[in-house]
Amino acid sequence: MGMVISSNTLAIFALLSTLILETGNIRKCSSLVLQENHEAEQFHPSTRQRRNVPATVYEYLISLEVNTTNMDQLRNTLKTFAYPAKISSQINVSDVDITTDFTRCPLTTTSPSTGINVSMSVTLDKEYITDYNNKSSSAYRKLESEINSVLKAQYSDIKGFIQAFVTGFRKGSIIIDFVVEGTQVDMNEMAKANKNFTNAIVSVAPVISSVTAQVISSSSIQTPAETYTGENMMLICGPNSTENIDIGPISGSVWKLNDLEIMSSRFKIVNQSKLIVNNVIPEDAGRYECILNGTNLFFIQTGVVKDGQIKQAPNIQLQSEIHVYCKVGQTQPLQCCVQPPYNVNWYNGSTLLPSKNAEKNCITYDYEIKNCSGSQEVFCKVNESVGYEKTTKLTFFTEGLKCQRCSKFCGKTAWNCHE
C-alpha cells in the first residue's frame, strides 16, 4: 500500500529544512525521499513496556540532500537542538544524522565565482506594494523573474559576463537593485548595455531614471608603510592591475576618513585619485574611503592607515650655533638629545665621532680645536630613521668679543664665550 504523506509528516521535513537552511551557504536539491520503516515498535508511553493493546508507531527516515561548503557549521548548528525534538503531541524527531556524499546531489546553480560585481539600480514608474518587501511572495518572485530575463538578455553579450540578477526592490516608485557580475569591467560596453536595458525594461514598466552603477574594489587604497609626524602622506585610490576594471576618465571624487567626508585644509586631493595629507598627526590614522566618479560608474575603495603606520618623529635637541674662544688643543663639549625609542650619534661629514652617554637619551662629544680659522659644522643624526639630523655650527674667535654665558640649548642668539 502506498504511503500517504500527512501534514504532520511534512512538519518533520519543515523542521529539518529550517535547521539546515538557517546555517547558510546551502542549496536544497530537488529530490526528497521518504522511506517507511515497517518494523513498528509498541511502547507504553511512561514505562516503555510493551502494551497489550497494539499501538502502531511508524518511523520515517527523511533523506534531505543538501550542498554545503561548511559541514562543520552545519553539524554544530544541529547539535544545539535537544533530541527527541517534539513537533506535536504525536510526532517527535528522534535524531538527525549527517553523512557526506559528493555524487548523489547534482548541482543546478552556478558555482561560487571570483568575478567583479557591479552593483546597479534603476527607478521604474510602477506602484510599490508591500509584497515586494517579502522575497518569498508571489508578487516579488514574478517581478524578479521578469526583470532577470531582461537583465540576462541585455548584459550577456558584454566581455567576461558571468551572471546578472535582481538583489531587491525599494520604494520610490520602485527602485530595482541588481548586480552584473563579470571577469572584467569595460565601462564602454557597460554603458551600451545599460542603455539597451533601459529600453528593454519598458516591457515591465517605464523608466524614470537612468541606470546608476558602482563597483566596490576588492583591493585596498595604497598607503605608505610608515609616515612620521610632521611629514606628508600620500594615499592612492584606483583599481590595481589584477582587477581588470576600466573606469574611464575621472570627473570627480569624494574622500572620507572614518565615514566622514574630509574637509580639512591639511588634506589636498590631486588628480581626484590621490590624497595628500600634510603635516601628519597621529589622529590621521583610520579607515579611508574614496569614491571616484568614472565614466558611468562610481568606483569605491577603502583602506586603513593603522596607528603603527604613523610614528612620532624624532625630536632632536642640541645647540645649533656656538661661538668658541679659540685655543688650539682645547676641547668644546657638544651635547645632543632625542626622545625614546630613538638614539643619536655625532658625525663629522660621514665620519662617526666617538661619543659618550650623558643623561637619558643624550650623548656628548668633546670637539678638539685644531685650528682657529673660520668655523666647523658637526651633525647629530638619528640612528633608526634616515633623514633626521641637526647641525651644530662652531664659530671660532680669538679676541675682542664681549658676551655672556649661555645655558643648555641656548640657541643662536646667545654666546658660549671663553671666560
Structure description:
The chain is mainly beta and 419 residues long. The protein has 4 domains: 7-93, no CATH class; 116-216, 2-Layer Sandwich (Alpha-Beta Plaits); 221-311, Sandwich (Immunoglobulin-like); 317-397, Immunoglobulin-like. It has 4 helices and 28 strands. It has helices at 7-21, 71-79, 138-155, 187-200; strands at 26-37, 59-68, 85-86, 92-93, 116-124, 161-171, 174-182, 185-186, 207-220, 227-228, 233-236, 245-246, 252-257, 260-261, 267-270, 274-277, 286-294, 297-305, 310-311, 317-318, 321-325, 331-337, 344-348, 351-352, 356-357, 362-368, 375-382, 389-397. The longest helix has 18 residues, at 138-155. Residues 1-15, 17-56, 101-111 and 407-419 have low confidence and may be disordered.
Q: Which percent range describes the beta-strand content?
A: 35-45%
Rg over alpha carbons: 38 Å
- Average pLDDT figure: 79
Oligomer: single chain
Structural class: mainly beta
Helix count from the secondary structure assignment: 4
Architecture per CATH nomenclature, i.e. the level-2 architecture of the largest domain:
2-Layer Sandwich
Profile the largest sheet. Answer: 8 strands, mixed
Give the CA-CA distance, first to last residue: 124 Å
Q: What is the class of the largest domain in the CATH system? A: Alpha Beta
CATH homology group of the largest domain: SEA domain
Strand arrangement within the widest β-sheet reads 6-7-5-9-18-17-13-14
The parts where pLDDT drops under 50 for at least 5 residues are: 1-15, 17-56, 101-111, 407-419
Query: CATH topology of the largest domain, which one?
Result: Alpha-Beta Plaits
